[in-house]
Amino acid sequence: MRFDLASITDKGGRRGNEDRLALVDHARLVAGVVADGAGGHGGGDVAAQLVVDSVSGALRERAARGAQIDSDALADALVDANRAIVMAQAEGGALARMRSTAAVLAIDPVARRALWAHCGDTRIYCFRQGRTAWQTIDHSMVQRLVDAKLLAPGEMRGHPLRSVLLAALGTQEALDVQAARVPFPISDGDVFLVCSDGFWEHVDEAAMIECIGQAADAEGWLAVLAARVRSVAPPRADNLSAVAVWVGAPREATVLGGWGAR
Q: Residue 126 domain-assigned?
């Protein structure tokens, strides 16, 4: 299988960027990792960097020795990243309470399947033939309200409690990590997005899908989406970061995926 990979990160309306990301492009593994350092605690950028270094390093090591990536391996990678943050917190000061969300997408090109794991409200989407095939479910207060049918899904983005997380890396308590238990079969034309909340908060799924058909490749798609985010985000908007993986050569992906030819 062929893949077109791209990434984008921007400080948005903040003074600094506490988001971090990584791409892994290996013959046996294609992966994207996005981490969003928790604002307001200090050291969020350090926590996020620890996450992407730890997770991407573990994935590259497994790919190099030909080990298969499974759900347990992805969950373990996030647990190890959590441990790295907790160890660094011992330095005290601004690092003492640092946290980070995390999401990792891993694709096996040989088996033609995808796996994922996440913690927090950094999301992973798969778009197929003009619709959302699946997406991760946030560990957040507003998601709990949606689950309880006290809030409509469309009301999540503007809710005053939207940024209240129920899980994040950097805890000494039991870590709440969700991982795909069953691999997701992939096909040419599938489009994957891994993004921080500063990205998805200002561009909904309908716009994400609409822009696929307007882009020539993964990089162009992220550029269009990021421009939309910047056009509507408030002055102090959060950092925005995303990784995109298009399955198939760029033009092939848009045509085979049912997005329309350029």
A: yes
DSSP for 63-130 reads HHTTPPP-HHHHHHHHHHHHHHHHHHHTT-GGGTT--EEEEEEEEETTTTEEEEEEESS-EEEEEETT
Q: What is the pLDDT of residues 233-259, one digit of tens each?
A: 999 899 999 999 999 867 666 766 776
Structure tokens at 256: 């085979």
Q: How many domains does the chain have?
A: 1
Cβ atoms < 10 Å from Cβ of 255: 17
Determine, yes or no, domain membership for 262.
no
Is the residue at 84 inside a domain?
Answer: yes
The closest alpha carbon to 191, from 205, 172, 174, belongs to 205
Domain of residue 194, CATH code: 3.60.40.10
pLDDT digits (tens, 9 = 90+) for 60-78: 999 999 888 899 999 999 9
Residue 205 domain-assigned?
Answer: yes
